[in-house]
Amino acid sequence: MMRFVIISATILSMVITSTLAKAADAPKVLLILRDGMPTYLDTELTKEVGVMKSMLEDAGFKVMVASPDGLPIKGSSLTFTPNLKLSDVKVDDYIGVIFACFGGGGAFQLSVSPIAVSIAKQAVTQGKPVAASHSSVIILAEAGVLVGKRYTFNVDGQLRDSRFIGATYGGTGMVQDGNIITCGVCPGLSQHTGLPDGTVELTQAFITALTTKK
Questions:
Q1: For residues 48 and 6, what is the distance between their CA atoms, to the nearest angstrom?
Q2: How far is Cα 181 from Cα 28, in angstroms, rounded to an integer?
Q3: Beta strands 62-67; 28-32: pairing state
Q4: What angle (nearest 5°) sits at the alpha carbon of residue 61, between those of residues 81 and 22?
Q5: Cβ(203)–Cβ(48) under 8 Å?
Q6: pLDDT tens for each residue of 67-84
Q7: 145: Cβ–Cβ under 8 A, 6 or more apart, which residues?
């Protein structure tokens, strides 16, 4: 009996060690939360951030979440703690970047972090897959990486914001143009308008693009 216990413990230890080793070697993906608190905070934390993180981890990636200040985000029923703040991000450490919508109403009026814009520019320049949901598509527009590309938003950005000039509006669904992937409807907007949430489709397209970069 004791021998069985020892053998079982040894096997379990080997499995745990192997799992930890694989996790340590897993390619890293950066998930960015933008400035501003969502109107539907718990919804965005669970149905957007949580879904993106879970899908990426299930696909074999190590997900590092960055926010402007890196501080815990407290919803009404849960608290989410990012791994780091944007100023500590080194783009070379990641094989791709995904920007969660994570913004409230009046998307065009939300502030855009210069650091997030710089990260988007670097990632696109390095040929890495970059995905953005709804209001965070503005970060890509600010970075100038949408020029000559198709993108999605809940409305035609060029009609509202000069940063979108030179890009082609592709509706509200998910659109991929090269390494840039966008969707026009996040969980919060979906809850408010009834439009279909594009989080799962966006994340799956991002995973597919990342697979060729492993």
A1: 43
A2: 18
A3: parallel
A4: 105
A5: no
A6: 999 999 988 888 999 999
A7: 120, 121, 124, 130, 180
Separation CA 71–CA 89 (nearest Å): 15
Do the Cβ atoms of 192 and 42 come closer than 8 Å?
no
CA 106/CA 93 separation, integer angstroms: 33
Which residue did the predictor score with more confidence, 66 or 75?
66
pLDDT at 4 over 80: no
Question: Token pair for residue 99?
Answer: 């920007």
Q: Which domains does the chain have, with CATH numbers?
A: 27-211 (3.40.50.880)
Sorted by sequence, the CB contacts under 8 Å of residue 146 that are 6+ apart come out as: 137, 140, 164, 166, 167, 180
pTM: 0.85
Residues shown for the chain:
214
For residue 154, what are the CA distances in angstroms to 51, 145, 150, 175, 184?
A: 21, 19, 14, 13, 5
Cα distances (angstroms) measured from residue 171 to each of 16, 110, 158, 183, 208: 46, 21, 12, 9, 22
Residues 60-75 as b/e (b if ≥16 CB within 10 A, e otherwise) read: ebbbbbbbbebeebeb
Bridging pattern class, strands 28-32 and 96-99: parallel
